[in-house]
């Protein structure tokens, strides 16, 4: 499974997962937001690494109703995904990744 597969599969199950890399922050550059089909279920945290963000997303998702057994599948592109977006972050970019794909929302000069 790829990182984008996790985001997409969560969406098919009725949840929303958003990852953000914030190049303007010195620490905790990764943000993960998970929300369920109703607004009662939402989770947000800031962490230093993508693997931490995905672990938190997985923990939040299993709290929602549904079959989340696929969440234990390994993420094949974790390192390359993290390297790509962390490089953008080092350049000062702010990038959001969700079901719609990648959105660059800011760039520090």
Word description of this protein:
This protein is α+β, with helices and mostly antiparallel strands and 109 residues long. Helix content is 32%, strand content 29%. The chain contains three helices and five strands; from the N terminus they run αβββααββ. The protein has helices spanning 3-12, 50-61, 78-90, and strands at 16-22, 30-35, 42-47, 93-98, 101-107. Strands 3-2-1-4-5 form a five-stranded antiparallel sheet. Strand 4 and strand 5 form a beta hairpin. The protein is globular, with a radius of gyration of 13 Å. The N and C termini lie far apart (35 Å). The mean pLDDT is 90.
- Helix and strand run: HEEEHHEE
Supply the number of helical segments: 3
Compute the number of strand runs: 5
Main sheet summary:
5 strands, antiparallel
Helix share bin: 25-40%
Structural class: alpha+beta
Annotate the secondary structure layout.
Layout: H1 3-12, E1 16-22, E2 30-35, E3 42-47, H2 50-61, H3 78-90, E4 93-98, E5 101-107
Antiparallel strand pairs: 1-2, 1-4, 2-3, 4-5
Overview features:
109 residues; 5 strands; 32% helix; single chain; five-stranded antiparallel sheet
Short description:
By secondary structure, this protein is α+β, with helices and mostly antiparallel strands. It has 3 helices and 5 strands; from the N terminus they run αβββααββ.
């Amino acid at each position: 499974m790829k990182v984008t597969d996790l985001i997409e599969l969560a969406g098919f199950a009725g949840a929303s997962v958003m990852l953000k890399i914030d190049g303007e922050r010195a620490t905790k550059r990764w943000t993960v937001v998970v929300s369920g089909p109703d607004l009662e279920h939402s989770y947000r945290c800031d962490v230093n690494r993508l693997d931490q963000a995905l672990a938190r997303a997985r923990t939040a998702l299993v709290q929602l109703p549904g079959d989340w057994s696929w969440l234990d599948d390994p993420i094949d592109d974790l390192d390359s995904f993290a390297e790509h977006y962390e490089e953008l972050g080092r350049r000062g970019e702010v990038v959001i990744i969700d079901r719609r794909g990648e959105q660059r929302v800011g760039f520090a000069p």
